[in-house]
Amino acid sequence: MNFELKILGSASATPTQGRHPTAQLLTAGGQQYLVDCGEGTQWRLLEHRLRPHHLRAIFISHLHGDHYFGVFGLLGTMHLQGRSQTLTIVGPPGLDEVLTTQMRVSGMQLAFGMEFVCVDTEQVAEVYADAHLTATTLPMRHRIPCAGYLFAEQPRRANLLKDLLPPGLRPAQLARLAQGHDLEPDDNLPAGLRHAAVSAPAPPSRRYAFCSDTLYTPDLATHIQGVDLLYHEATFLHDLHERAAQTHHSTARQAAELAQLAGAKRLLIGHFSSRYKALEPLLAEAQAVYPTAELAIEGLLVSL
Amino acid sequence: MNFELKILGSASATPTQGRHPTAQLLTAGGQQYLVDCGEGTQWRLLEHRLRPHHLRAIFISHLHGDHYFGVFGLLGTMHLQGRSQTLTIVGPPGLDEVLTTQMRVSGMQLAFGMEFVCVDTEQVAEVYADAHLTATTLPMRHRIPCAGYLFAEQPRRANLLKDLLPPGLRPAQLARLAQGHDLEPDDNLPAGLRHAAVSAPAPPSRRYAFCSDTLYTPDLATHIQGVDLLYHEATFLHDLHERAAQTHHSTARQAAELAQLAGAKRLLIGHFSSRYKALEPLLAEAQAVYPTAELAIEGLLVSL
């Protein structure tokens, strides 16, 4: 099954023509999850022919507007489009209050349920799980409570090695094997069959770490060792590292250093300050430390 | 002085590629006013090189998201851009609560003051006045409390007729005349001078009526007789007039009928349902009743 990330926004708080605030679409096991949702995210989904209807959950890192002001409109659109499936919204304290206040003053009654998961942004804790994915908070250090998220696939199924399968298995037997079970002795299989004897080991679950707005925090690396993909904010170039520290943001070099410390297999940097009209200097600075770093710019699709 | 309207959004609630939710920029006496502010309005301002910094007041018709979800981000951007001037926000009850709730949960303290004017959407009442403009509510009939606004220039100054001015007037005398005063007898003007004798009558104040989401309401015409410009929503074509009535919206034909009843000098129609990929049929329907009707589409600039 696919495990992929589409970048919908690369900007930081001040609006910039052609760049949009943070939003990412994660697809796992055919399910879609939104990671942060800046203003206008529903138009980004439209541009990429993605239907908000299909979203299973929305994860919000923190309550600065460039990370969540798109939620209001997105909920309204899902309602107008006839959504009935419950939507899970994961985020820091206060998100539920502002959303329910908005709906009350607007006289809006959504046609679908919402389940709020209020996270403790200082803990590393599993806050979401379904059949495809788990999400674990990563403590960011920002000006207000802020959580990153480590998304991990649920354990993957071992692939059967067709060349090793005995001939004449019944469809029901094949199905049981595919589900990971051993087969009991049977009239067409007198010795039975151990699942492990005819399958490759299950591929490891893929993991994606989303490190939203944060002061450079090397300790984070311990929680995301060997992650398949790391997104880390890189608001500034390193010559502005003091400004980064003052505003609780990171530099491109720091993002790359964290990727190195974590042994991340891939690195995306984003959340670029509007002062940078061209992004190449940010990329070059990250690549000086982590040579395969990439820019998390609008439209980028990363399949793991 | 200029009195002009720029259309920033033409769409109704469901997002449509290339169309944006309601937002209009009114300029009067060199001051800028925002009329409704759907999601993403700050990017529309950016596209037209308009600086939100300069906005004097924001008028919100009602609390459906496609008319106000852009306010959250716009306030944040004004803050980041260093605004210090107080901003007036005019709108129905609840707007102040949702904005202050959002700022509280976001830990945001704006660097500028906000003055909320809470309007009674069932009354025709002057709710705003400054040196350039007054705004009077127009009762809309929608699913939730909704106000239109009649914007009127403050009385304009009579233009001096230079050919009639006696020679040798001192600069101070000219200035008094320009301000509308008579001149007392003086050594270089023994008979004095009546202002009316050397000026054309003041041009009438220009007026713009913004009729946001509403059921067709012919009575509205009495409040906007002879208006220079009428914007009226036209969500549907008239074959869907029952759907329009159910949802408390109007059809293009009804918008044109209201313009006729009001003797409006110009008519713009907008707030088009996303079901209409092409807008010509809506325009044709309006023009069958009001031949000079125009589409209020993104980028349109109307100077009165």
Can you offer a commentary on this structure?
The structure is a homodimer of 304-residue chains. In chain A, the strands form two sheets. In chain A, strands 6-5-4-3-2-1-14 form a seven-stranded mixed beta sheet. The first copy, chain A, has a seven-stranded mixed beta sheet with strand order 7-8-9-10-11-12-13, covered by helices on one side. In chain A, helix 7 runs parallel beside helix 8 (280-287). The first copy, chain A, has one domain: Metallo-beta-lactamase, Chain A (4-Layer Sandwich), CATH 3.60.15. Chain A has helices at residues 41-47, 65-68, 70-80, 95-105, 171-178, 241-246, 252-262, 280-287; strands at residues 3-9, 23-28, 31-37, 55-59, 87-91, 114-118, 126-129, 133-139, 147-153, 207-211, 229-233, 267-270, 294-295, 301-303. In chain A, a hairpin with a 2-residue loop joins strand 2 and strand 3. In chain A, 47% of the residues are buried. The first copy, chain A, is globular, with a radius of gyration of 22 Å. Chain A has eight helices and 14 strands. By secondary structure, chain A is of the alpha/beta class. The A-B interface holds A 13-17, 39-40, 42-43, 46-47, 63-66, 69-70, 72-73, 76-77, 80-81, 93-95, 97-98, 101-102, 104-107, 143-144 and B 13-17, 39-40, 42-43, 46-47, 63-66, 69-70, 72-73, 76-77, 80-81, 93-95, 97-98, 101-102, 104-108, 143-144.
